[in-house]
Structures are given as structure tokens and as C-alpha cells.
């Protein structure tokens, strides 16, 4: 992976994914806590996902998408993946 300013492409992608999840969560009016509960993910872990601090599994992306009533592929596409 190429390093840019001490960050890898993977770091950038995780931040973009987290930002897309945050934007969608806010657009449907859910708190981070409510989204985490609906997706069956610990709230603190959800915060780390949204900040791009955790490498989220595909299963968790699917759970988050279901809680946001969209497809995982839509979230991934909007995040540039």
C-alpha cells in the first residue's frame, strides 16, 4: 500500500466508509446509539467505525446497511469502494 503523509490507502478508505455511514445515519435521523443497537453492534465500536478507526467486517457493513434500510453495495459505492 502506498503511504501518503503517514496514512495508507486503507486508512483513507476506512475514513471514507465511516463518513458515508455517518452521513446516511444522520440523514435518516438516527443517533449513533440507535444505529448501533439496530445493527447489533456495540455503540463504542460504531463510533470507531464512523471515525475510520476500525477495519469493519463485511458482515457488519451488511448489518449497518440493513439498519439504515439500504444496500451494503450502496454504502460501499458512495464511499468509493
UniProtKB/TrEMBL annotation:
The keyword Cell wall biogenesis/degradation is assigned to this record: no
What InterPro entries does the record tag this protein with? Cro/C1-type_HTH, Lambda_DNA-bd_dom_sf, TransReg_Diox_bact_type
- Tell me the ranges covered by the HTH cro/C1-type domain, including all copies: 21-75
> Which controlled-vocabulary keywords does the entry list?
DNA-binding, Transcription, Transcription regulation
- Coiled coil ranges (UniProt) are none
> What PANTHER family does the record point to?
HTH-TYPE TRANSCRIPTIONAL REGULATOR (PTHR46797), HTH-TYPE TRANSCRIPTIONAL REGULATOR SUTR (PTHR46797:SF23)
Name of the protein in question: Helix-turn-helix domain-containing protein
What are the leading ranks of the lineage?
Bacteria, Pseudomonadati, Pseudomonadota, Alphaproteobacteria, Sphingomonadales
Amino acid at each position: 500500500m502506498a503511504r501518503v503523509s503517514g496514512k495508507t490507502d486503507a486508512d483513507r478508505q476506512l475514513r471514507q466508509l465511516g463518513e458515508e455511514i455517518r452521513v446516511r445515519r444522520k440523514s435518516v435521523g438516527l443517533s449513533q446509539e440507535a444505529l448501533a443497537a439496530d445493527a447489533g453492534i456495540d455503540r463504542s465500536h460504531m463510533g470507531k467505525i464512523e471515525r475510520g478507526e476500525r477495519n469493519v467486517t463485511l458482515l457488519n457493513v451488511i448489518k449497518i446497511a440493513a439498519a439504515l434500510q439500504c444496500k451494503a453495495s450502496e454504502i460501499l459505492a458512495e464511499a468509493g469502494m
